[in-house]
Amino acid sequence: QVQVVESGGGVVQPGGSLRLSCAASGIVFNRYAVNWYRQAPGKQREFVARITNVGSTNYADSVKGRFTISRDNAKNTVYLQMNSLKLEDTAGYYCNLHIFWGQGTQVTVSS
Fold first, then answer.
1. Measured in whole angstroms, how far is the alpha carbon of residue 96 from the centre of its chain?
2. Exposed e or buried b per residue across 12-36, where buried means at least 16 C-beta atoms within 10 angstroms of its C-beta
3. Bridging pattern class, strands 46-51 and 34-39
4. Which of 51, 56, 84, 98 is 20 to 30 Å from the Cα of 63, by its Cα?
5. Residue 5 in contact with residue 74, Cβ under 8 Å?
């Protein structure tokens, strides 16, 4: 049974940082690209960042230069380092690989 679990969300002030984690089990992790998406209240889910199985990355324009995605295949985990957080980064953040999704972790940026 495949499980995808996000963690690391919380409340942070503008300009602050958080690191999200996405841990997967029950799947050959190093075969798959992993994506982060986010969804703010009343808005559609949007792409944030992606890392391929060989470590190539790409980002949404809105987070480029502020967020960094990385992976540790030995730990079956992908990370999303989020720096210089803005109010508009407030959302539920979801991890996706293949057809599987996690339950999400909430990030709230508030002064």
1. 9
2. beeeeebebbbbbeebebeebbbbb
3. antiparallel
4. 98
5. no
Residue the block writes with tokens 């324009």: 61
CB 46 within 8 A of CB 90: no
Q: Is 57 exposed, middle or buried (0-12, 13-18, 19+ CB in 10 A)?
A: middle
Chain centroid to Cα 63, Å, comes to: 11
Distance of alpha carbon 81 from alpha carbon 83, whole angstroms = 7
Q: Which residues of the chain have pLDDT under 50?
A: none
